[in-house]
Amino acid sequence: MEEAAVSLIASYLPTTDVHVHIVHVSAAGVVPILEKARLERIHAGNKGWRGGVTAETCHHYLTLSSEQIPAGHSEYKCSPPIRNNTNKQQLWEYIKEHRLDLVASDHSPSVAALKSSNFLESWGGISSVQFGLSLFWTQAKARGFKLGDVSHYLSAGPAQLCGLQSRKGAIRPGLDADLVFFDPNASFVVTPDIIFYKNKISPYMNRVLNGKVIQTYVRGQLVYADGQIIGGPKGQLILKDGF
Known about the structure:
By secondary structure, this protein is α/β, with parallel strands linked by helices. The protein has a single domain, classed as Metal-dependent hydrolases (TIM Barrel). It has helices at residues 2-12, 30-43, 59-63, 85-96, 132-142, 147-161, and strands at residues 20-22, 53-58, 102-104, 179-189, 208-218, 221-225, 228-229. The protein is built from 6 helices and 7 strands. The strands form 2 sheets. It has a 4-stranded antiparallel β-sheet. The longest helix has 15 residues, at 147-161. α1 (2-12) runs parallel beside α2 (30-43). GO terms for molecular function: allantoinase activity.
């Protein structure tokens, strides 16, 4: 179904210049379909970022595999679903070859009451926004990736997609000082007591993750340090007027 849906979208791409971004790529077979459409657009003269055809995958597709899912544990339920280990390894090959553009959390919180042992009835979605950097680094480090690869997929890529590359996504004069002090050699265990988001449900519970965020700055202001949130929200709304 995922490949069929993307194939349908790709069939319309030659007739339009609108930027198309595919979210939540879980099936590795999607990537060649998009690459073919991108090349056709570039040859037709589209000079947009990546020919106006981009795609993202998510931390759960790069960390988990269907073989690991215990029966009745709907904290693993998401859409598209988590696929097998062979598929996961292929996604990492695409990451290595820069054939995907960014990695997102697709953070989907759910109260415990909506996560029953019945997969068909349970809420679909995985909460991971707090642990995304460590989830990605745990898998990337084991495959020989460098911290620059993390920055590319978790920072520069999202900034480019949102049109914020002149403000965010890199460390250079004139850009917002959005900074993370990150210890790549530290490790920690995911437990309910360290989770900041409201609903403390996670398929990563009791998993050891590598790499730990020590401090976080938003536009030069310290907002997190040593396990503590500092001050109130400091973000800015980016919605257009009328929304």
